[in-house]
Amino acid sequence: MSDNKQKKDALPRVGFYVCHCGTNIAGTIDVAEVQKYVSGLPGVAVSRDYKYMCSDPGQELIARDIKEHKLERLVVAACSPNLHEETFRKAAAKGGLNPFYFQMVNIREHASWVHTDKKAATEKAKDLARAAVARVQHHRSLDKKRVPVDPNVLVVGGGIAGIHAALTLANAGKKVTLVEREATIGGHMALFDKTFPTLDCAACILTPKMSAVKSHPNITLWTYSEVEKVEGYVGNYKVTVKRKPRFVKEDLCVGCMECIDACVFKEAKFRDKFNQGLGKRKPVYIDFPQATPKVVLVDPETCIQLKTGKCKKSCAAACDRNAFDFDQKEELKELQVGAIVLATGFKTYDAGRDPNYGYGRYPGVFTALEIERLVNASGPTSGEVVLRDGRRPKAVGIIHCVGSRDEKSNKWCSRVCCMYSLKLAHLIKEHSGAEVYNFYIDMRAPGKAYEEFYDKLLGEGVHFIRGRVSEVSDWAMTPDEEGKLVLRVEDTLAGFVRRVPVDMVVLSTGLEPQTDAQEVRRRFNIGCGTEGFFQERHPKLAPVNTFTDGIYIAGACQAPRDIPDTVAQAGAAAAEALSLIDAGFVELEPNTSHVLEEECCGCKSCVPLCPYSAITFDETKKKAVINEVLCKGCGVCAAACPSGSIVQNLFDDEEIFSEIKGVLSK
Amino acid sequence: MTEKFEPKIVAFFCNWCTYTAADLAGVSRLKYAPNVRVIRVMCSGRVDPQFVLEAFARGADGVLLGGCHPGDCHYAEGNYKTLRRMRMLERMLRGMGIHDGRFRLEWISGAEGDKVRTVVNDMTEKVRALGPLDLPGKFKEWDKEMEELETQVNSGPAKGEAVHAR
After folding, report:
1. Are A665 and B58 in contact (CB < 8 Å)?
2. Which uninterrupted H or E stretch holds B51?
3. What's residue A541's pLDDT?
């Protein structure tokens, strides 16, 4: 089957090029030997090694050789095809060769970088090169298929990343749908009082952008909604969005909040999630005064009408716009978009997972996010820093790296905690006059004006103790520790163990992937790294792209990052989406499958296998038919066809069989 | 045998997960055994069981198949089809005397560069312990036996007939 049908003398003329990649390849693999070996293989007309094949002169060399030596096939042994396949296809095209008469051999990522035995690595390179030379002779001339790109964009997540991406795209004239799971956009940034290192008010810089989203003619804002299903491919995604019922008609409510006053519950008595449980709310509520959209919602878990159907509905009566609708149902909406920006953000580490810090056990222990709400003028205490019993703390200890840089929980540095701890230290001192102690492992302040901010805090008299706190306890050893929380820490600069009594402990919790990050990335068909954050296409050169074309990521869903970096990344994701849309079309890899009609026996084995329903059965001809527009080129059908009558372009049976034979025949 | 036996392993890696993971292993400069030759396919579901048989027939001592974790397939469900086919193939291989461990199916995600290293090293060691499979050599032996039989049959009919006639 794999034997070449063509006669020896009729073999296409192959040009072979092996790249040194400086010393990246040549340091481990004897490229001269590979070059010499391949020059003796059947069909090889030209064999060369060159310092940098991907450089302009390298590509020129290929183009010139194709013309001068009448090359009909091209093989380049260099890095991963994921990096430079496109480069060399273009070089082939420049020389007048169909770009798919090309095969790449990965001898850097798969050989020189992973092996130390030079002889064995060189042998491996020779084997792989031989296989490619054998394979490329079976390649056929192919064309890329062009499909139009839908100009509309979906942005998922309404934190600062999603907001910025949506606005950038909308300002460029694209129609954007912004989907947010919570009842308001704003994300974590809406919880903050001030932002580091400039200490400008978070709301003052965020809320204008939130209103801009709401009022932008090109943005459709769907809050309290979640993406249910994503189908299609780059440029042509069909997205199903679930809109949860608010029991209030969004287009009628003006956010006057009369209904909240009128609720049969005179006192707010339910946990206020937005305020991290430090405040209370009623069953009908709005998260915060600048919530966008400024529309109330009813919580079905606590509302008497929704739970029992027996309430006098004083809220609805108070609404002069008749916005209440207790029969509202969940709605499924469909969207057609060309590109998707995922900005689903992060969650903070659950402080209860470190029992020795006493969160949930000692009322004096808070998470940093709770303190954000306490120092916030629109928070539950109107900006008063007080303990849960209302007392003002005289001493506050801030523990860094809770759930970060820890073998037992998360190994990564969460990047923002040092800086927000400094910010909170400043704000706590400003709001309460307390003595503030920072317990840190290393102070990480690498950003514009960050180190200067640290210096400023040192000057303000905030105490810094270098060491990881081992425990927080209420066990007093001396009279001045009575009634206090005592932090035990090895001061690694002074070289002894300290006991520091405080009234309030702040745990600077790290950043983690969202709880449902795995489900979300499956829904969008992208990957996650081992730590659970969304995986970018390339850590350096494609940080907002994913392995699925047309889907981009921005903000802390990709890795922990601060606001400036998040906004920069959101802009980058928007720009990537724009460059896709404004091209107007995408070129799809021609690796689709087709049926050789005369050979198809009509067994229908392939029909149910296709996950995209691209295969149908022509009842009159009794043959399977593949719709190449729907085919995504996985090749599952080709592998299953008993008569071998399905051909997958670029991964044809003949091509793969010759590659198998090639790597093994010596 | 003075020279240490170096197993030849052919691997089929899916483009989206395992091939990417092998790229990642490279970028991370992890070091592993140089015995594996990777053939890239778009999806592990493209791997026809015949590819595996062909590899053994051409002299591979082991065949490794790498795909995305269940639920993570870039093409929704190609890896489930792989799993079904390969379970069947494993049985067949066992029937043919190709031991467990010579054929291996692994789920390696694009983030698991380190798993590429451990799997390749582990498989290389195990196949090394099993020794050469050398199907091409065996085919030659069998061909020779067949030839001998044939010559016996061809040269002996007179004798045979004589015996039979008596």
Report:
1. yes
2. helix B49-57
3. 87
- The three state secondary structure string of A247-270 is CECCCCCCCCCHHHHHCCCCCCCE
Q: How far apart are CA A370 and CA A352, in angstroms?
A: 14
| Within-domain flag for B122 | yes
Length of chain A: 666
Q: 3-class DSSP state for residue A239? A: strand
Q: Is the peptide bond before A293 cis (omega within 30 degrees of 0)?
A: yes
Same domain, B76 and B107: yes
Q: What is the Cα–Cα distance from A525 to A538, expressed in whole angstroms?
A: 17
Q: A663, B75: Cβ pair inside 8 Å?
A: no
SS3 call for A106: strand
CB < 8 Å to B132, chain A? none
pLDDT of residue B158: 56
Say if residues A425 and A457 touch (Cβ distance below 8 Å). yes
CB contacts of A636 in chain B (<8 Å) are: 43, 45-46, 75, 78, 81
Residue numbers of the domain that contains B141: 136-166
Q: CA-CA distance, B7 to B165, in Å (whole number)?
A: 54
Is A653 close to B48, i.e. CB distance below 8 A? yes
B58, A591: Cβ pair inside 8 Å? no
Q: Do residue B45 and residue B114 come from a single domain?
A: yes
Q: Do B85 and B14 lie in a common domain?
A: yes
User: What per-residue confidence (pLDDT) applies to B4?
Assistant: 83
Q: How many domains would you assign to chain B?
A: 2
Decide if B72 and A522 are in contact by the 8 Å CB cutoff.
Answer: yes
For residues B14 and B60, state if they share a domain.
Answer: yes
- Same domain membership, residue B81 and residue B42: yes
Q: Which of B45, B75, B109 sits opposite A639 (nearest CB)?
A: B45
Q: Which two tokens stand for residue B30?
A: 């992890």
> Do the chains contact at A108 and B43, CB–CB below 8 Å?
no
pLDDT at B166 over 70: no
Helices A417-432 and A450-459 cross at an angle (nearest 10°) of 30
Tell me, what's the ipTM? 0.91
Most distant CA atoms of chain B, gap in Å: 79
Helix (H) or strand (E) run with residue B146 in it: helix B135-155
Q: Is residue B4 in a domain?
A: no
Across the interface, whether the CB atoms of B46 and A648 are under 8 A apart is answered yes
Contacts of B6 (CB under 8 A, 6+ apart): A120, B35, B128
Residue B2 lies in a domain: no
In total, the C-beta contacts within 8 angstroms joining chain A to chain B are 139
The reply to whether B99 and B145 lie within a common domain is no
- Cβ proximity of A424 and A417 under 8 Å: no
Q: pTM higher than 0.95 for the full model?
A: no
Write the residue in B23, B30, B76 that is nearest to A611 by C-beta: B76
Q: Domain check: are B162 and B124 in the same one?
A: no
Q: Which helix (H) or strand (E) holds A233?
A: strand A225-233
Is B1 inside a domain boundary? Answer: no
Distance CA A139, CA A89 (A): 13
Domain CATH number, residue B128: 3.40.50
Q: Which domains does chain A have, with CATH numbers?
A: 2-144 (3.40.50), 258-318 (no CATH), 348-512 (3.50.50.60), 593-648 (3.30.70.20)
- How many Cα atoms sit within 13 Å of A72 on the Cβ side? 12
pLDDT per residue over A551-576, tens digit each? 999 999 999 999 999 999 999 999 99
Give pLDDT tens digits for A485-534: 999 999 999 999 999 999 999 999 999 999 999 999 999 989 898 899 99
Alpha-carbon distances, residue A583 vs A173, A206, A340, A577, A586 (angstroms)? 14, 32, 16, 10, 7
Q: Are residues B29 and B106 in the same domain?
A: yes
**Best of A104, A138, A660 to mutate (most B CBs within 10 Å, chain B):** A660
The nearest alpha carbon in chain B to A527 belongs to B110
